[in-house]
């Protein structure tokens, strides 16, 4: 078994951006189309709800909350979430494939096959399993902390809650690190390798944790920078449309169709800018795991090794 080189793994995504810029844009376009479709589907519901809330805040008691709208919005969000997760699985596999099989460049490494389906099911099922598992594991901590608070042992309750919460978080991180290479293994041969990935990552927690932690920091920095820019420009643009900050209170009392028409140009610009950003994030966040797997992969066939 080889050794993971953390620095080279982190740099793999950035190298992919430099070598395959057109592929990066294709990934970003695919993600942007899905995000744009998601926004186009839910925006009318949100604007209607916001419009009704603004009317009530202005003293219009004849505009009650529309519960039917809220229920329809919830169902639509569930459906769009499934679509987003599936497209995400396809894009994740494409980034992994670009590192593991650079010669398979057709269609920007995008495929819909067994690996993509397995990863989608793993993401979908894993989110439910993780939620249920966390509740089961955290329940004793919650009960003990609640009892401590109930008998006014505040310090004990705080210690139990903090230590227990950190322990649950550490357990989740450990499990995620042990399963972090399951996607590259599935991309390699189109088979489900949950237990194989667990075996392969034995003794590799710290390098995998370091990769995950560094990627998390990179993501936080990017989100902070992009978030500040988007908030500043968005607030400035909407304030200008509203005739100044003081007009924001009445801006959202306009009909939803009028608001969408006003925001159309800035939303279009945001979608265009998001194309390279989404593509680059897909490479930066996923390519390192393919590189880590390539570092650890035995020289013989993986399936034969774990048979």
Summarize this structure as a short list of keywords or feature phrases.
single chain, 307 residues, mainly alpha, 11 helices, disordered C terminus
Structure description:
The chain is globular. Mean pLDDT is 85; it is low at 301-307. The protein has helices at 6-19, 21-57, 67-100, 114-150, 154-178, 182-189, 194-200, 205-241, 248-251, 256-296, 302-306. The chain is built from eleven helices and no strands. It is 81% helix and 0% strand. With 307 residues, the protein is mainly alpha-helical.
Number of strands: 0
Low-confidence segments, given as residue ranges, are 301-307
Biggest sheet statistics: none
Topology as H/E string? HHHHHHHHHHH
N→C terminal distance: 16 Å
Beta fraction of the residues? under 5%
Structural class: mainly alpha
Share of helix among residues? over 70%
Radius of gyration: 24 Å
**What is the number of helical segments per DSSP (H or I, 4+ residues)?**
11
Shape: globular
Mean pLDDT: 85
């Amino acid at each position: 078994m080889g050794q993971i080189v953390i620095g080279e793994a982190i740099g793999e995504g950035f190298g992919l951006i430099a070598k395959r810029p057109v592929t990066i844009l294709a990934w970003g376009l695919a993600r942007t189309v899905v995000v744009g479709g998601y926004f186009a589907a839910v925006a009318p519901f949100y604007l209607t709800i916001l419009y009704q809330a603004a009317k009530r805040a202005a003293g219009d008691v004849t505009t009650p909350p529309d519960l039917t709208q809220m229920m329809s919005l919830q169902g639509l969000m569930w459906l769009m979430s499934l679509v987003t997760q599936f497209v995400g699985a396809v894009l994740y596999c494409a980034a992994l494939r670009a590192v593991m099989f650079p010669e398979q460049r057709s269609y920007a490494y995008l495929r819909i096959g067994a690996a993509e389906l397995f990863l989608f099911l793993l993401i979908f099922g894993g989110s439910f399993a993780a939620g249920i598992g966390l509740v089961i594991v955290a329940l004793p901590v919650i009960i003990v902390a609640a009892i401590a608070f109930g008998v006014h042992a505040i310090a004990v309750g705080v210690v139990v809650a903090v230590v227990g919460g950190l322990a649950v978080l550490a357990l989740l991180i450990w499990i995620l690190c042990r399963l972090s290479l399951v996607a590259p293994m599935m991309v390699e041969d189109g088979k489900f390798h949950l237990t194989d990935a667990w075996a392969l990552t034995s003794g590799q927690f710290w390098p995998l944790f370091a990769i995950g932690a560094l990627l998390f920091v990179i993501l936080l920095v990017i989100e902070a920078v992009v978030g500040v820019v988007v908030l500043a420009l968005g607030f400035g643009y909407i304030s200008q449309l509203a005739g100044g900050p003081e007009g924001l209170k009445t801006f959202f009392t306009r009909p939803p169709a009028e608001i969408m028409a006003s925001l159309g140009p800035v939303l279009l610009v945001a979608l265009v800018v998001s194309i390279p950003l989404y593509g680059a994030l897909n490479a930066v966040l996923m390519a390192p795991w393919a590189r880590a797997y390539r570092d650890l992969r035995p020289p013989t066939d993986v399936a034969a090794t774990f048979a």
